[in-house]
Amino acid sequence: MRLESFGNVLLLCCSAARRHSYLIFRKRVPYLVKNSLFKNHFFVIMNMSPFNAHLQIIDKTIGPKVRERNTYVNLREKFVTWLIKEMRRVDPVFNKLCIGLSAFPGNSEWNGDCKPNEFEVICILEFPFPVHIGLDNDRPGFVHLDMYDVLNKMAIEDKWDDTFILLSTLVDFHTAYLRRQELHNWISQVIEKALMTAHIFGYEVNYKNYQEAHVLTIYEGHNLMKVIKIDFRPVIKFGKVNWMQARSKTLLKTDYYYNWYAFPIESSMPMPNRTHDYTFLLSNPMAENELLWSKEKLKIVFRLICSLRFRYVLHGIRDYMITNAMLWMLKSKSMEFVNSRPLEDLLIYMLTSLCNFFQERNMPSFWVQNWNLLEMLERKDVADYVKDLQIVCNQLSSYPKQPQLSFARTSKHFCIR
Questions:
Q1: Among 311, 337, 338, 318, which Cα is nearest to 410's?
Q2: Strand pairing of 118-125 and 223-238?
Q3: Could you identify which of 27, 161, 232, 361 might form a hypothetical disulfide with 214, taking C-beta atoms 3.0 to 4.6 angstroms apart as the criterion?
Q4: By the 8 A CB rule, do 228 and 115 touch?
C-alpha cells in the first residue's frame, strides 16, 4: 500500500470514523490490520489528530526496522566479541588502553540513518593517568587532549614503556596535543593485524579506512547473503573537569559528570589551522541516552527533525546541536511535559526552539558556560536557516488545527527514502 493512500485511510480513522462513517471504515479493517504498520497503531490513532497520526506513520517509515535488524544482531555481537579479543591479542598497548565497548549505542543505531544490517560500535579507550582536557574556543563543541602530564607519569613507570613509546608518536611534538588522525592511523593498524586471522574463524571481511571512519563489511563464511556492516569508532573517556557547567541534581545524576567521551571527529570549521588537527567532539552518551534516548517520543522527535533537515538541506544543523536543544527543553519544561504532551506538540516546540536559537545566532551549550554552538556557522548560512525554519514552523504549527489534513501535505516536509 502506498504511503499516501495509507495516510488518507488513517485520516478517515481520525475524523469520519469518529463520527458516522464507522460502518464504511469497518469494511476495510480486516485488510488493514494485516498491515503491521497499521496494526500497531490502529486503536491509538483513533484518538489522535490527523497531524499526529501522519507523524507516527512517517516515523515508522524512516525509523529503524527493528524486526529486520534483529536478524543480524547475533552475527554483530559474535563478530565484535571476536574482533576486540583479536585486537587485544595483536597489540599489547590496545589491550592496556581498551576498557570495553560503550553500553550506549550511537544515534545511528536508531535514528533511521542506517540499514537494518548496519551497526555502530563505540570502543572506549582510557589512559591510566588524567588527561588535561582543554576547550577549543574557536570551535564550540570540541576539545583538545593535552597528553603532557600523562606522558611524564608514564615515563617513570616501567610497565608503561610500550604505551609511552606509542603515545609519543601520536602527540604533537610542540603542544603535546593528541593528534586525531594519528590516533585513527594506529587503530587502523590494529584492526588490520587482527583481521589477518579472520578467515580461520569463518569470517570474510572487507575493511576500509576512510580517514576518520573504520568501516568493516563482514560475511559469515561463504554466505554472501548474510552480511553486516560495522562503523567502528574509537573514543577517549575522561572524567570530571573544572569547566563543566553544574546543573540541578534533580535533572542530572553525579555519574554524568564522570562519563565523558572525546570522539576523534573533525570539526566542520577549518580555521584557524593551528588547532584543527587536534579537535575531538565532546559527548556524554550516558546522559544523552538516559535523559533523551530512553524516551521513545524524544527519539521520534529527533528522527523527524533529522528527516526535515535532509529535506530542506539544513546540513549545518548538526546532531549535537539538536541534542543540545533537547536538553534545554528538559531543563525548562521537565520530563512531565514530555510525557504528557502529544508528539506534534513536542516537534513544534523543538522546531520553534531551534528557530529562536538561530534567530538570535546563539545556542548556549548545555554543558559548558560561554559556549555558543552556532559560532562556527557563517552568518549567511544562519540567516538562510532562519528563513527555512520559520516557514516550516509556521506551516507545521497550523496542522494540528486542520481536521482534514492529508498525509501528502504532511509528508512533503520530510525526507522519506
A1: 311
A2: parallel
A3: 232
A4: no
